[in-house]
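For practice. Supply one:
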Amino acid sequence: KGYIIESLDIINKILNQEIQGTVLRFGAIMSKIRLYLKTGKYTKIPELIDEGDKILESVQDIKSDFMLWIKGNYFNDIGNYYWDKGSLSQALESYDKGFQFRKELGSKIEIAKSLTNLGNIHYIRGEYDLALKKYAETIILKKEVEHNVDLSAVLSNIGAVHLDKGELNKALAYFNQSLRYISNSNDEAAKAFRYINIGQIHIIKGDL
């Protein structure tokens, strides 16, 4: 409850009463989209996107960091929806829209999230060079904000790209880097996954 009250106080300070209602309605739409994504009720999401797009159009002239944050998260959520559906081109477009808003906002953490999503879609589409470019940009930001666990995940993604390209030594190097960044964490599942990747490469190379 405390977080909700704090959020409402921020909205009250930034926006007038009419816009407050619009933003709160938009927040409810975003919450529903996330809920339906978690529960797999995808058929309910398109009408929410239509409603959300109309609301965004009605407030497009409002310039504030708060609105940039909302828009970045909204399009990121839509990207997640299209990704789950397998509509990769639409996912890429939505993630890029979210990325542009987050870049304008200037939040390194949020920008890094968008870059990771963009890299993931390029990877799935087999666009390896584009994926590596996005991941490389992500690493720079994650090192600046010292997100070791997230950094480990991106390094693992880079290793996977090089593995798919048949570049075993590069893949091994990135998987080992990835493991080092989570060596002190309690995420045993993530560590196990990294060890499996490393072992897989050694098997392919005939080292075992």
Q: What stands out?
A: The chain has a mean pLDDT of 88.
